[in-house]
């Protein structure tokens, strides 16, 4: 890509487990990028200045294209930086990679992992943080409710460790796809388990440890060693303040051409229709509004105006809702 730092600006905060998916990818690929650090709770004026209402972290700009949700970020990085990609190559490998993405994100592994946040964590004593997370998730974040959810969550996560130990890693392979280095499939599988392993007090060692699941914990250690080695060779990200990030993005070119709107899509929408797009699982109260300029089986794209410049907001199709805006009403299906 043209422009400084490959045109990439990543909005994130350091302990976001989802942001780590993209940070790991950029590190393993050695792709130069810029970052704009964000607060862990709302508001986030740096993103508001871009005209982005989407509240989840991370958000990634490549040129004037803004990508919301890590699933679409990783796909676009593979497409836009095709030299030495991390994606699977065979049909069978692609199926495993996609299954692992669905398993950890859409099938509930991370939801259960998030319910293992220890009640001793200092942030849970911060009313601003707990209120923010209740707005984000739509569920209670009081300590009593977290403690009540913990046994079921632990059972689900232990089942996840067992699945990895007794199937994918059971034959002693180093990496998920039997490659000589970690691939996108490893990122898709490992991130909730690595996050929990590094979160003090999240995993009770009498139930989940190196003793019960030696292959999984060895894989986590290998992955972190590979990351450290890659980080030593990768360019150090450029740190941008919010105003500088906005100006860099607004003065850039688009990273990709228009997607086009599939007239055969079940929603039957037309190019240029004014719509709202928002996630259906978390952060559901925060809607982005713009003209529909892209729609297919995998992606929806909105055109918005910010400081007189067009930006394009990209979302995955799965897990997001599209509502048509009609005159005289807020929104309707």
Automatic annotation (TrEMBL):
<dbReference type="InterPro" id="IPR036282">
    <property type="entry name" value="Glutathione-S-Trfase_C_sf"/>
</dbReference>
<protein>
    <recommendedName>
        <fullName>GST N-terminal domain-containing protein</fullName>
    </recommendedName>
</protein>
<dbReference type="InterPro" id="IPR058268">
    <property type="entry name" value="DUF7962"/>
</dbReference>
<feature type="domain" description="GST N-terminal">
    <location>
        <begin position="6"/>
        <end position="85"/>
    </location>
</feature>
<dbReference type="InterPro" id="IPR036249">
    <property type="entry name" value="Thioredoxin-like_sf"/>
</dbReference>
<dbReference type="InterPro" id="IPR004045">
    <property type="entry name" value="Glutathione_S-Trfase_N"/>
</dbReference>
<dbReference type="Pfam" id="PF25907">
    <property type="entry name" value="DUF7962"/>
</dbReference>
<dbReference type="Pfam" id="PF13417">
    <property type="entry name" value="GST_N_3"/>
</dbReference>
